[in-house]
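Field log, afternoon session.

UNIT: design team B
ACTIVITY: writing a sequence onto a fixed backbone
BACKBONE:
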């Protein structure tokens, strides 16, 4: 179980690092837009992301 969790964390870090590496200007602009969002909007994006991740886990597991 721990091995799978560490592999998932490593994959997440690789995927998270792709956008700033490939398109740093787009990454920076995304954060500028994110700063203008309300807490509720940011929470909604986080919740949506978690739900999509859970659905993908159930589909591919």
């Amino acid at each position: 179980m721990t091995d799978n969790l560490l592999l998932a964390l490593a994959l997440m870090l690789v995927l998270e690092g792709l956008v700033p590496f490939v398109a740093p200007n787009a990454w920076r602009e995304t954060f500028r837009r994110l700063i203008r969002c309300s807490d509720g909007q940011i929470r909604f994006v986080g919740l949506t992301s978690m739900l999509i991740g859970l659905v993908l886990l159930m589909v591919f597991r």
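LOG NOTE: The helical segments are 2-22, 24-35, 39-60.
NEXT ACTIVITY: expression trials, pending approval
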